[in-house]
């Protein structure tokens, strides 16, 4: 993707929301009605999933083995493309795993071309924007957050990597889920300084054409504007349990790739 000369000027139709935490910014993709919602720094908000047990839909039943209460085992992807995991099964846990892969992988994107090839692996195509627009906005703001040059190849030193700390989901319609993800994001800025940022975020995901898609338009969840961001809580605390988070039993959900 060709470099743009005006990356210092964020587009008017920006598809991002930024939130300041300790002087740092973290990005979450959104469009129009704030479809992908987020909460950072643990400020109290309403829990959009109600904190209850995962709801079931018309999807095939999960075949995952039983795990202790408060824990969940997410399925492995069937394959990967360009190094990113895809091909999650058509069940509750598959929907959750797909969103987790989407959220964890987007954090590390600092290369424009790589982001443009990443976007169609997870995000449903829309008339409102191209995948080039998604990549342009995401990487520009990620680079700004890390204090690095906006143009050119991805910088060698600065980085961002997410570790999944919790997940929860709700079936809002047949084959449509609202999935919330809790992560710890490790940032290495252009000046070499590092920090860890707690993040609670989420997305609407739906099954179509034998695969999962992230819905950026809000068409699958008409009442989206009434939702508030999920609440971040540190694993092992009472607040974590009360918020309905589940610990991901798998130990490999860390880093820019899964």
UniProtKB/TrEMBL annotation:
Top-level taxon in the UniProt lineage: Bacteria
Disordered as annotated region, ranges: 43-74
Biased composition (Low complexity): 54-68
Entry keywords, A to Z: Membrane, Transmembrane, Transmembrane helix
Protein species of origin: Nocardioides panzhihuensis
Lineage of the organism: Bacteria, Bacillati, Actinomycetota, Actinomycetes, Propionibacteriales
Protein name: Uncharacterized protein
Regions crossing the membrane: 15-37
């Amino acid at each position: 993707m060709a470099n743009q000369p005006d990356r210092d000027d964020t587009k008017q139709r920006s598809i991002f929301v930024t939130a300041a935490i300790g002087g740092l910014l973290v990005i979450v993709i959104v469009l129009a009605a704030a479809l992908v919602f987020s909460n950072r720094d643990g400020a109290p908000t309403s829990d959009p999933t109600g904190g209850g047990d995962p709801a079931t839909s018309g999807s095939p039943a999960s075949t995952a083995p039983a795990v202790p209460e408060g824990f969940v085992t997410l399925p492995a992807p069937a394959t990967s493309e360009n190094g990113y995991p895809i091909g999650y099964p058509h069940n509750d846990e598959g929907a959750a795993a797909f969103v987790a892969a989407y959220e964890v992988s987007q954090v590390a994107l600092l290369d424009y071309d790589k982001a443009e090839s990443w976007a169609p692996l997870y995000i449903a195509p829309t008339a409102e924007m191209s995948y080039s627009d998604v990549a342009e906005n995401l990487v520009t703001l990620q680079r700004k957050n890390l204090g690095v040059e906006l143009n050119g190849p991805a910088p060698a030193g600065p980085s961002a990597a997410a570790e999944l700390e919790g997940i929860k989901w709700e079936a809002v319609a047949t084959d449509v889920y609202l999935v919330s993800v809790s992560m710890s994001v490790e940032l290495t800025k252009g000046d070499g300084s590092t920090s860890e940022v707690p993040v609670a975020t989420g997305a609407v995901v739906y099954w179509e054409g034998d695969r999962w898609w992230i819905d950026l338009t809000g068409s699958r969840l008409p009442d989206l504007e009434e939702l508030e961001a999920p609440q971040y809580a540190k694993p092992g605390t009472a607040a974590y349990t009360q918020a309905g988070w589940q610990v991901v039993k798998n130990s490999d959900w860390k880093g820019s790739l899964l």
